[in-house]
Structure formats: C-alpha cells, structure tokens
Automatic annotation (TrEMBL):
GO molecular function: metal ion binding; metalloendopeptidase activity
Subcellular location: Mitochondrion inner membrane; Mitochondrion matrix
Domain Peptidase M16 C-terminal: 232-431
Keyword Membrane: yes
Principal subcellular localisation of the protein: mitochondrion
Function: Substrate recognition and binding subunit of the essential mitochondrial processing protease (MPP), which cleaves the mitochondrial sequence off newly imported precursors proteins.
Top-level taxon of origin: Eukaryota
Summary of subunit composition and partner proteins: Heterodimer of PMPCA (alpha) and PMPCB (beta) subunits, forming the mitochondrial processing protease (MPP) in which PMPCA is involved in substrate recognition and binding and PMPCB is the catalytic subunit.
Record's protein name: Mitochondrial-processing peptidase subunit alpha
Organism of provenance: Chlorocebus sabaeus (Green monkey)
Annotated Pfam families: Peptidase_M16 (PF00675), Peptidase_M16_C (PF05193)
Stretches assigned to the Peptidase M16 N-terminal domain: 78-227
Length: 525
C-alpha cells in the first residue's frame, strides 16, 4: 500500500519513480487545485474561473426522425422510423383477423398464426428459416388479433435484404402442407384445452365479453378456433381466405432502425409483382362490415373449486366482466377514454407497489381497499377502427356475486360524476409515462408504426399524443362517460353463477342515479 501511495505521490508531483530523470507532463501537471489555495473562496456549487461553460443535453419531447411512408404501385405501404442501434425490427402487418371470418369457417386466423414461418417456396422447413435468421442474430414471431395479423422479425440491420425477402416468402408463398396443417390442428387442440384449465380466466372472459357485446358480428366473432372447426380447416379453405385478405392494398411493411430508401428498395424487389401461392385472382368477397354493438350477456357455469390444487390452492372464485361501448381509436374521444381507463386502473388485491403501480386509482381506493373479500378489480379498454369497449373485470367468492356486481355498477355510474383535478392529473401523468416507457422498446415502436399506418396511412408521433393527453379536461372525461352510460351493457360471467343478478337488473342499475341493483325478495334461501 505504501508503494502505491509513493508512486501516486511522485506522479502527482511530476516526477518519475522509475528513473532519476524528471518527466514533463506539461502545465496541467503543476496546476494547483482548489485545495491547494489557488481558489480558496469558491464553493463547489459555483463554476471555476477559466473553465468553459458546459452544454447540457435538453429534452424537447420530440423525435428527431419522422415516420416516413411510401406507397408502392401495387398499393402496399412502406413505413419506417429511424432509430439508433445495430438491430432493426421489420415486419408485415395485414388487415386480417377473426372479424373478417363471417363468411368462412371460424378459426382461420388462428390457424394462420400457428402456421406462420413454416415451409415456403424457398425454404423447405421452419428450421431452415430459423437458421437463415440466426446468421443475422434474428428472431421471428407472428401474432393475430381480431383485426390485424402481424409477421415480425428482429435482426441485425445489415441483413435487411435477407429479412424482407424471407418475410415476403412467408406471407405470400407458404406451402401449407398436409403435415403442417395436421400439426397445427394438434397445437390448437392443446391450446384450447389449456385455455379452459388455466387459473387466469382473463383471455376467456375477454372472448366472452366481445361475444356478448357484438353478437355474431365483426369483433364479436370467435378469435380462437372452435373445437368443431379444427378438423374442417384445410389448405383449400385457407387459400380461399388468403386470396381475399392477403392483398398488397391491405398490407404495411414497417421497419424500425432502418433507412427508409433501403426498405423501399427491398419492398420493390420482393413484394412488387409477386405471384402468391394462391394465385393472382382479384379479391371479390371482402367483408367491409362495420361493427354493430348489441350488448347482451354471455354466461359459462363452471366448477372453479379445483382450478389450482396444491399446498396453497387458489380459492373458488366467480368472475364477472361488465362493459359498455366506448369509441374507435380514430375518434377524438379516444384519448379521454384512455385517460378514464387509467383513472379507473385497478388490479389484484395482492399487488405490491406505490403510486406507479396504480394504487391510487379508483378501483383500488373505492373497491379493493374497502372490500377485503374482492380478489380483483381491473379496468380494460379495447379499441378498434370502428368501435371500442370499456370493461371492468372483478372476481370474488360465489356467495358475494350480487354485492360485487353492484359495486361495479356503482363505479360505472361514478364515472359520469365529478372528476377530481388531482386524480385526473395523476391519470394523465401515468398514461404519458406508460406511453413513453413502452415506446423505448424497438418492437413496440414497430407495432405502433405499423398499426397506425395500416389504419390511417400516417402516424402520430409520441409528443403529439402527449399533447393530446395533457389537453384532456375534467369535463371531457365526464362527457365521454355520460355518453357511454346511455348504452346497453355487455356482461360476461364465469364460475358459480347461482347468485348472479339478471341482465335486466344490471341494465337497470346502470340506468339509475346511484348504480344500485333492484331489491329482490326471497321466501326461501
């Protein structure tokens, strides 16, 4: 230790400990520091004389790169967002999903999701596709929703040409062999069985609330393939659907972390004038139906007592979801509805965390903190290009279902009441924070670019959305909530439904001033 101190001392004094000769470090070696008496009266909080003024980075809330959009001759849109980094995310988004299956066997979109990145005209197997991507450090994924199908790849930006070529082949030239279709049937059968056995009922309830809200039309059609259709869907059925919906004018090639001109060149090379595997016949039977909100109830009686067996089994619960029609994401009221959804917040009764976790949202303060027997109360907002649905999901012991439903209806009625300025600012801040934090992720930016361009042919940048959020006033929230409350409710119920109020009683409660259910009297209980 002494040797180290000795060496350091000699260096600071400008002399070398390895030789007798003196090293010249220049003027800086002899500079006297503030502790040496040169600047005895200057505190550390003040700048030192002679030191250049520092220039700090500033945050203006705006992206330096605008989203660029180009439309090719065949109608396909190419959108890109530049972003610093070695890797990029590129994919094809298509106006295709379960909402377009009214004239087809339900479950086609589910099949196509499972069949994605299988063998194509150029690649003999899924393994060959994955090996090609691995050369560029790439991964791939396909996701379908009710209105959008998305094929995406994240890989090194240097492999952009290979990636776009691969995506074009996967989307337009799939082989859909009998073996692959049969494997997909098995995978879907397993997924449906898992859906009915899993302790978390949220995916099943979401399916049921859409079925109740949009009875047998558009977004109310089954997102998962019904069991009876699994054996009926084959290559011919898939091709008849692909012929109508996998057309260039319904597609967007989106990229994040790429040069726009390079992406356009790749699109022209691989996606212009390509003959798809199902032929080049024009789409003749495209469903352009607008979503028709009907309201209604979907019930599924089920024994939930043995959902999770073990040392600490989950208690038997009944799950209820109540929803009302909101608006589409293309309307101006979409932002006030998003703020309202954040203001309601909610979560599970065992969540941990502070304000950032939504502990000061209405469903925590008014519901979970006051009613210890409620296990969950969460607000959800589903929005599409022609409609929307604001829901509250709650769960409790089957014996307290009626009381739980009344608590939910009261919360809906309170949405149309006075909005506290503090809770509104908190909700707006939390929504802005969530938006900006999510948009730090490259795949999230990709999905945002793709979905916006698919719907509107342009993109609102984050700072524009933040401005819209900041401009939401208490009267905006009250106005959209009051308008929503004038509609019919949609109800989904799962579990022991012995004490579930009738749909008419729930509708009456949501039409009342206080949200209370009509009183019922029983001679025997």
């Amino acid at each position: 230790m002494a040797a180290v101190v000795f060496v350091a001392t000699r260096l600071l004094r400008g002399s070398s400990c390895w030789s007798g000769s003196r090293l010249r470090f220049g003027p800086s070696a002899y500079r006297r520091f503030s502790s040496g008496g040169a600047y005895p009266n200057i505190p550390l909080s003040s700048p030192l004389p002679g030191v250049p003024k520092p220039i700090f980075a500033t945050v203006d809330g705006q992206e330096k790169f605008e989203t660029k959009v180009t439309t090719l001759d065949n109608g396909l849109h190419v959108a890109s967002q530049n972003k610093f980094g070695q890797f990029c995310t590129v994919g094809i988004l298509i106006n295709s999903g379960s909402r377009y299956e009214a004239k087809y066997l339900s479950g086609i979109a589910h099949f196509l999701e499972k069949l994605a990145f299988s063998s194509t005209a150029r690649f003999d197997s899924k393994d060959e596709i994955l090996l090609t991507l691995e050369k560029h450090g790439g991964i791939c994924d396909c996701q379908t929703s009710r209105d959008t199908t998305m094929y995406a790849v994240s890989a090194d930006s240097k492999g952009l040409d290979t990636v776009v070529g691969l995506l074009a082949d996967v989307v337009l030239q799939p082989r859909l062999t009998d073996e692959e279709v049969e494997m997909t049937r098995m995978a879907i059968q397993f997924e449906l069985e898992d859906l009915n056995l899993r302790p978390d009922p949220e995916p099943l309830l979401t399916e049921m609330i859409h079925e109740a809200a949009y009875r047998e039309n558009t977004v109310g059609l089954h997102r998962f393939c019904p069991t009876e259709n699994i054996a009926k869907i084959n290559r011919e059925v898939l091709h008849s659907y692909l012929r109508n919906y996998y057309t260039p004018d319904r597609m967007v090639l989106a990229g994040v972390g790429v040069e726009h001109e390079h992406l356009v060149d790749c699109a022209r090379k691989y996606l212009l004038g390509v003959q798809p595997a199902w032929g080049s016949a024009e789409a003749v039977d495209v469903d352009r139906s607008v979503a028709q909100y009907t309201g209604g109830i979907a019930k599924l009686e089920r024994d939930m007592s043995n959902v999770s067996l073990g040392p600490t089994p989950i208690p038997e619960l009944t799950h209820i979801m109540v929803g009302l029609e909101s608006c589409s994401f293309l309307e101006e009221d979409f932002i006030p509805f998003a703020v309202l959804n954040m203001m309601m917040g909610g979560g599970g009764s065992f969540s941990a965390g502070g304000p950032g976790k939504g502990m000061f949202s209405r469903l925590y303060l008014n519901v979970l903190n006051r009613h210890h027997w409620m296990y969950n109360a969460t607000s959800y907002h589903h929005s599409y290009e022609d409609t929307g649905l604001l829901c509250i999901h709650a769960s409790a012991d089957p014996r307290q279902v009626r009381e739980m439903v009344e608590i939910i209806t009261k919360e809906f009625i309170l949405m149309g009441g006075t909005v506290d300025a503090v809770e509104l600012e908190r909700a707006k801040t939390q929504l802005t924070s969530m938006l900006m934090m999510n948009l730090e992720s490259r795949p999230v930016i990709f999905e945002d670019v793709g979905r916006q361009v698919l719907a509107t042919r342009s993109r609102k940048l984050p700072h524009e959305l933040c401005t819209l959020i900041r401009n939401v006033k208490p009267e905006d929230v009250k106005r959209v909530a009051s308008k929503m409350l004038r509609g019919k409710p949609a109800v989904a119920a799962l579990g022991d439904l012995t004490d579930l109020p009738t749909y008419e009683h729930i509708q009456t409660a949501l039409s009342s001033k206080d949200g209370c259910l009509p009183r019922t009297y029983r001679l025997f209980r």
